[in-house]
Amino acid sequence: MTTRTTILSLPKEEYVHPGNRACTGCSLGIAYRIGLKALGPDTILIVPPSCLTVLQGLFPVASTKLPSLNVTFASTAAAATGVLEALKAQGREHTKVVAWAGDGGTADIGIQSLSGAAERGDDFLFMCYDNEGYMNTGVQRSGTTPQGAITANTPFKGKMQQRKDVAAIMTAHGIDYVATASASYPLDLYDKIKKAITLKGVKYIHIHTPCPPGWGFDTRYAVKVGELAVETGYLDLYEVEKGEFRLTGASAKTLEKGTRKPVREYLQTQSRFRIMSPEQAADAQARVDATWSTYSSGEG
Amino acid sequence: MPASPILMQGNEAVAEGAIAAGARFFAGYPITPSTEIAETLSRRMPEVGGSFLQMEDEIASIAAVCGASLAGQKAFTATSGPGFSLMQEMIGFAEMAQIPCVIVDVMRGGPSTGLPTEPSQGDVMQARWGTHGEHSVIALVPSSVYECYTLTVAAFNLAEQYRTPVIVLSDALIGHMREAVTLPEPGSLRIAERGIPDCEPGEYDTVMSDLDNILPRPPLGSAFRVHVTGLVYNRRTDAPETGDPEVAGDLGRYLREKIYHHRDAIARVEEYEMKDAEVAIFAYGSVARSAKAVVKWARARDVPVGLVRPITLWPFPTLAVDRMAEQVRTVIVPEMNLKQMSWEVQAAVSGRAKVVDFGRVDGKLITPTQIEELVRAEFYYHDWSKS
Question: Which residue of A has its CA nearest to B58?
């Protein structure tokens, strides 16, 4: 059993300077700040175009203290492989190579290079922060945008398709570690990163990062919205370590408790779901129920 | 009743122009500063019974466009520099397989991620030579919101007429600018429709395009036998044939000459105040707006300056540049890149006039003041104090 991290036991060292270019209330800032604390100083970051490249700007020269490689959109995992192999050749295996990509850079344009690296077993950690759309270019739908969400180019009926389950896709690669996390539960994220960096091959962590302007909620509610996603079972915190599935943190507690809040409570916090049909909302609830029925029937 | 002017953005005008031209298929991927084209079409395409698709990247976007065009729809995509780079292989495929389609590149500062929100003209040579191998290309450069509309229509017409991909080179400034425009009456536009070959399906193998008679390709899944390949193919049968140098040479020359043979008909240029000009400004796209302001300023001071504005950048408007080279002593080429078209002008002018280049790659528009200074230097003997 790993000991659980508390706020008091987090490292004091900050790797994100105060003063960055993120939007007000952006939850990525929480995940990023805590994530870098878990990674520590001996880390190289690989980041494709995304909200994070924006966040990395400002302070006197940049907001991130760690070395960062901002690559092209389709190339995150492949660039990580190159950096990693060069470090290996130089006997610098101790340096961690960590990719941070958005959902578009992971699920859509980036999935080919990520899948290739996972199949080869390249030894790096890939973090996908999922704000469920192309927020940086003005809120367009992505592969992980949920059904029913209004975006700049799903303006009439909202997105018609279901969100793509990237964590499941990565699990299907048979890699050692796949986890989901949420910016609203930073300590759960911290522990998962700590564990992931001890394992070999591609490790994948999918972080839910609520986005106030993109999802349509007040800037002070990012943490609340993220919590509701977990409390309703819309997003589950779990890890799959060497094939073993386990709910973690708040999701494990929800399973113990045996009751979940209705998904509607999560959906109605965000204006992007304002025209969602009752059928879509019922479908969202049914999908959550179906997933959770597999949890309760299993070992949990 | 004539249409009344409306306030419109360049990117919106591209989207509306495409619909007016008969485009009913769009596939794209979000990228600044072209995103409004996709956003507009996500609303407009369903209204006109067309398809709007957001793909997983730009490679998928242009590939879907090629597929849609081959199946019989007028199809296009819109992107900016990084996406345009990703599309290059499929643009080459479209050149090779002679697929009519339109690619709108709203240029931003580069290379790579560069200056996502700032204008540039850095892709003009990529438009010409971006894909590998010998090929020809048509590229149009709008310099106003109105032209975003009309040149998109023209791009679809040229694509159909010459069975080729056509590139519209807008930029972040033109794309994001809002102007009052009076769009042409819907019926007044010439729209080139895709035909089918004027023969029986069984005779299709006996007909072949030549430079003056480019036959349409029947759609995939029709009664005609259609084979589309990126390999070198026999122009009569469309079947891959890579072992015969004569077949390869014939196709290679044809693909180039298909456009070059017609370049004087394709190339459009605006010549402004060129009648007695001693100095010409050669400027295109957003920079041409500053250049035109300078010509007006100079003419108000009786200084003989004119503007040559290529509307068609590729094929290069050699006829107009020849005329200019014979007439003026100096050609000023301001552009938001470092000498890309200036070299081309210099080659075409071939020593008949002095070529002065002025480049800017900081994401800012070349101002009239900057061009004014270059004009003043050419007329150093003019008494500027009098005017």
Answer: A109
